[in-house]
Design a protein that fits this description.
Blueprint: H1 9-27, H2 41-54, H3 66-79, H4 86-96, H5 98-101, H6 115-126
Helix pairs in contact: 1-2, 2-4, 3-4
C-alpha cells in the first residue's frame, strides 16, 4: 500500500468542510464555477474551508449568514485592491469576522502572554523536547561540563 494514497485526517477535514462550505455558499446564491474576480467561488470556498479546519471550526457551528458574509467581505477586499494574495485575504477576513472570533478559544492564554509564550509553556509541561526552548544562560548551568 503506497503512503501517497493515504489521506491525513486534516486533508479529510478539508474535503468534508469544503463540501459543507460550498453547499452553504451555493444555497446563498454563489455559483461555485462563477469567477470571483480572477478566481472561482469554489476556490474561495476551499480556502474558507481550510481556514475553518485550521481553527478547529465547522460550518455547522457558524451563524447562517457568516459564510455568505465572509464571501462578500472577501469579494470587497479583492475589488478594493488589497495587496495580499487571495488566500491571505480570505484568511484575514475569517480571523477578523466577529462570528468567527466568538468561536475561537484562547482560554489558556493570559492577557499578558502571547502565543509563543503559551507554546513554550505547553511544550515544557508536556515534555516536548523539540518544541521546548531551553534556558542556557550562565545561571542555568548548561555549560558547566565544558
Amino acid at each position: 500500500m503506497a503512503t501517497d494514497s493515504v489521506l491525513t485526517l486534516q486533508q479529510l477535514e478539508y474535503i468534508e468542510t469544503g463540501f459543507e462550505v460550498s453547499r452553504n455558499l451555493a444555497q446563498a446564491g454563489f455559483n461555485m464555477e462563477a469567477p470571483a474576480l480572477t478566481l472561482t467561488w469554489g476556490q474561495v470556498a476551499e480556502t474558507l474551508a481550510h481556514t475553518l479546519v485550521d481553527y478547529g471550526l465547522t460550518p455547522d457551528r457558524l451563524e447562517e449568514e457568516t459564510l455568505p458574509d465572509l464571501a462578500r467581505l472577501v469579494q470587497q477586499s479583492l475589488h478594493d485592491g488589497v495587496t495580499l494574495n487571495w488566500q491571505d485575504i480570505i484568511r484575514m477576513q475569517v480571523t477578523a469576522h466577529p462570528g468567527i472570533n466568538t468561536l475561537l478559544e484562547f482560554s489558556d492564554m493570559e492577557d499578558d502572554e502571547g502565543p509563543l509564550t503559551e507554546q513554550y509553556e505547553n511544550a515544557t509541561r508536556l515534555g516536548d523536547d523539540e518544541g521546548c526552548w531551553t534556558d542556557c544562560s550562565a545561571s542555568a548551568g548548561c555549560f558547566d561540563d565544558f
